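EI: anyone free to look at a 276-residue chain?
SC: sure, send it
EI:
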Amino acid sequence: MSTRHLLSDHADAPQVRRGRPSRPSVGVVVPTLNEARNLREVLPSLEAVRPDEVVVVDGGSTDGTAEVAHEVMPGAEVVEQHRSGKGNALVTGLHALHTDIAVTFDADGSADPAEIPDFVSALVEGADMAKGSRYLPGGGSEDLTRIRSLGNLGLTGVFNVSFHRDFTDLCYGYNAFWLDVLPRLGLPDPDADAPADGQVVWGDGFEIEPLFACRFAAAGADIAEVPSVEHDRLHGTSNLSAIPDGWRVLTTIGRERARSRRRTPAPAPRHLRAAS
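SC: here you go
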């Protein structure tokens, strides 16, 4: 599969800093839990943009998710996560990739694979992380309720004050970054056993997206926001629980701020304009 189709039509793409390639290989991680019906539609649309690797991570599905992934996209790698939770699934998939860039991609049909070139271009142009935003011009959501939107904006504000940034959308799972930074993020070991007391490992749940943002921000990374449109889920219901997961995100921000309080604040992210 060719990465050529994942880059914007800039004839002379700039060479990225620190020796990163200007024509990077791109891998996509798709965390799943009972998403068989969605994968029949999502994987063909994802394959159309021709990523170099696709890793589907199954969290113990009972609806044949893994079998459907093998059937619909034989070239994809399907792996089982060791613990549970979206965070553990994403980190498991990231460790399975062999590409320059990783894209985190939901299996429910809410993410548009046609936007992947925008994320890749932001990275090629110098960002360490490209973060999707539903609030920038050109972005939007068919799924956000008023309450969830207000909660997200509030959490984004707390994050911005804590990390001296000006993000517009913290709690959105469509992101991309250079994989060379993965060892420096200090994410939970995806293969470690779950605690004997049944507690969830911090970073294994839906707090994974803000955890990514916090760790990148604390490291002084260049983070570019990219306009993105979130579509309605195709089939089934979300595993997200707004109030407990929102509290988990808020706790994540507090923990990560305490962890990084001796670090020098990083510059604000660059807001990319929507393509005309």
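EI: The first strand starts at residue 26 and ends at 32.
SC: 👍
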